[in-house]
Design goal:
By secondary structure, the protein is α+β, with helices and mostly antiparallel strands. Helices cover 38% and strands 19% of the residues. It has three domains: 2-189, Recoverin, domain 1 (Orthogonal Bundle); 195-357, Alpha-Beta Complex (endopeptidase fold (from Nostoc punctiforme)); 371-469, no CATH class.
Length: 473
């Protein structure tokens, strides 16, 4: 496999010898595509076809170009092609690899040589015997575990190659096939360590769902499941907020079932950032629904992020079974209220955004004058509008600079067809805003920009007035 990948690279960059540009790769793939089309009787590619290929090449080049030089080296080409053979996120590896290459420019080449030396069958995977041979010949110094230090010559002489191989495979192997892919090898070498992900299932009906299902539904149910996803020793779930608690020690008691979902390479801080940025704006009290937007939907999205797959069918398909019952559909609003405000919101769990619970913190407070996109208040229809973060903490300012606290009336901002309503009982609450944040990466010495989503007190938000008196939504 490695030989084929390298040979294709050499054919593309015959002129430049050691690297590929976007133009060279585009030219290669256009010619290859035209040759394939002619084989099946089609003509030359149109201008639009070539433009599509050029745009796709530009995207791929950005993914490949870890060194950010604008050209792709042999090592980057091999790295991208081998990662493409697996379902693991290349971003998990490349974010750490990029930092490592800033300190050790040759690290990618060195790691590929280590992998290739063990890949005696040239199929992109390492067997137990091949890895044991590497330790026997003292060509591998990888230490199993979280230490990070390489094995010394003395340790290799005193140790058992068989045990080294078993230990390192146990640490690297993510899917239980007792062989190591290139992605698993690289993830371990750049510092990723696998964490098991399990699913806790609780029967909210205490057994009644199983008894009543034949009378109410067309399908049998083992239970009316509430689920929590367990990783890093914590149990994450959705009640009236996205929360977590000690695994197996939530207010729901002892789980009826515990299912292993596999392993993840993401870190806890990355999981928290994903929840805060991507899930909290979607999963909150006013979006909770007993059937379509409940705890199981939340844990399913977590499972997709951490493991790249859906929850088991018995949980994932439960909503479809409930929808088949006319009785369940008729009592759906009451069921939603009962589950949201009673059953699943009864514990001492901690919100993922809580400072004392390991929340992903913003590096710096949101500065006054920052332009933000303000989302409608919970439970209120409307489109996002443009706003500003103010310095004021004790007063809320309306679009004309006047206070929007006008007696007991519900304040409303109406701008070019968009409405942002602040319910009277939420005046001291917060609003979701999105903004573009620039931070300086000390390790890489570069500026990085990203879209962030935060909860900001209503008292710090005003409507943005654009030049000419117009306001943009």
């Amino acid at each position: 496999m490695l030989l084929v990948i390298r040979e294709e690279f050499r054919q593309i960059c015959r002129s430049s010898k050691d690297s590929i540009s976007t133009a060279e790769l585009t030219q290669h793939w256009v010619k290859h595509t035209e040759d394939e089309q002619q084989k099946i009787g089609n003509g030359l590619l149109s201008f639009q076809d070539k433009q599509v290929i050029k745009l796709r090449v530009s995207q791929v080049m950005q993914e490949m170009d870890i060194k950010k030089t604008g050209r792709i080296s042999m090592e980057e080409w091999v790295h991208h092609m081998l990662l493409a053979q697996t379902k693991r996120s290349a971003n998990q590896i490349n974010t750490l690899l990029q930092t490592a290459m800033g300190q050790q420019p040759q690290i990618l080449k060195d790691l590929q040589l280590m992998f290739e030396a063990a890949d005696t069958q040239d199929n992109g995977t390492l067997t137990f015997n091949a890895i044991m041979e590497m330790y026997s010949r003292k060509l591998w110094h990888l230490r199993p575990g979280n230490d990070g230090r390489p094995l010394t010559g003395t340790e290799l002489d005193a140790g058992d190659p068989d045990q080294f191989a078993r230990d390192i495979i146990k640490e690297m192997d993510l899917n239980g096939d007792e062989s190591i892919s290139y992605a698993e090898f690289m993830a371990y070498c750049v510092g990723r360590r696998k964490q098991e992900v399990t699913l806790h299932l609780y029967d909210l009906s205490n057994g009644m769902g199983q008894k009543l299902a034949p009378w109410i539904l067309d399908h049998s149910l083992d239970g009316v499941w509430h689920t929590g996803l367990v990783c890093f020793g914590k149990e994450y779930f959705f009640s009236r907020d996205t929360v977590f608690d000690e695994a197996g020690a939530t207010s729901f008691g002892k789980p009826c079932k515990v299912l292993s979902l596999g392993y993840t390479l993401w870190r806890q801080s990355e999981l928290h950032k994903y929840i805060v940025d991507e899930l909290k704006p979607k999963f909150h009290r006013d979006t909770y629904d007993a059937i379509d937007y409940n705890c199981n939907n939340f844990t399913n999205e977590l499972c997709q992020y951490l493991c790249g797959k859906d929850l088991p069918p018995e949980v994932y398909n439960m909503a479809l079974h409930l929808k088949s019952s006319a009785l369940i559909r008729s009592i759906r609003p009451v069921l939603t209220w009962w589950l949201r405000d009673g059953v699943v919101a009864r514990g001492r769990e901690v919100s993922v955004e809580s400072d004392d619970a390991g929340r992903v913190k913003v590096d710096k407070p949101l500065r006054a004058g920052t332009i933000v996109k303000i989302f409608p208040a919970d439970g209120v229809e409307g489109s996002p509008i443009l706003g500003l973060v103010t310095q004021l903490e004790g007063q809320n300012i309306g679009p004309a600079g006047d206070s929007i606290l006008q007696g007991s009336r519900t304040p409303r901002w109406d701008l070019c067809g968009c409405s942002y309503v602040v319910p009277a009982n939420q005046l001291q609450d917060k609003a979701w805003v999105q903004f573009f944040d620039l931070t300086f990466d000390l390790e890489l010495g570069v500026c990085r920009g990203e879209l962030r989503t935060e909860l900001i007190p209503h008292l710090r938000l005003t409507i943005e007035k654009m030049e000419g008196g117009e306001t943009t939504c």
